[in-house]
Each structure stands twice: as structure tokens, then as C-alpha cells.
Fold this sequence. Notes:
Blueprint: E1 14-26, E2 34-35, E3 41-43, E4 48-49, E5 58-60, E6 64-65, E7 71-81, H1 92-97, E8 101-103, H2 108-120
Parallel strand pairs: 7-8
Antiparallel strand pairs: 1-7, 2-3, 3-6, 4-5, 5-7
Amino acid sequence: MYVKRMNSEQINFLASEKFVAFPEAIDAANYNVQTDDEGKKYVPAGTVYPTNDAKAVGVTINDVYVNDGAQLVGVIREGWLLSDQMPVTPSADAIKAMTTIHFKDLSASTDSSSTTSSTTSNSGH
């Protein structure tokens, strides 16, 4: 069941209207569980999933309440995001692990330095 957080706004962290997401299970053991004004536990939209490290595969698309056990949540696997709008800034390891997620507000060297170096070396001259 989805319940809107009391006294807060959901921040838009999408840098593009197009993205690819797949459902994943998430529960109260997640590192970014928070408590709303009514004492209910939830994982906010924009959380790096499943962990904010080299095991990261994506970013949650919406808030999900986890008081009643594991719940399904959409996890963005491909798209353009704004890291400064997310509830927890993605770590360098998480950014490197999520190869099909790009951050518009980060420099190319931080986001994916291997992509820029490979495209400049194939000039064909």
C-alpha cells in the first residue's frame, strides 16, 4: 500500500522523462529506511539500490513503505538522473557500478571516464 508522506514533497531527481525500470523487492533492512510523520517506515524515491556501493544496480523510482515486510519497488536501471536531488548522494563506487545510469549534474570524468576516452581514440585518421 502506498501512502503519501505527511508534510513533505517528493523531489524530482529525473533529468529526462525516459528511463528503464524493473521491479525489485525491498524491506526494512535497507540502509536508507526513514520514518514519516506518522511513525511508518519507508525507503524514499531516489535511493541507490540495493546498497550505495559497488553492488548498486539502480535507483528507486518511488517511495515504498516497508512496515509490513518486503515490498516491490521500481528500480531505474537506465536513464539520466540528478544526483544532487537524491536523498543520499551516490558513492563513487555506486556510480561506477551503475553503468547505464548517467548523472547530468556530474562531470563526465566522474560519471564514466572510460566512455569518453574510448570515443576520442577512434578518430579514423
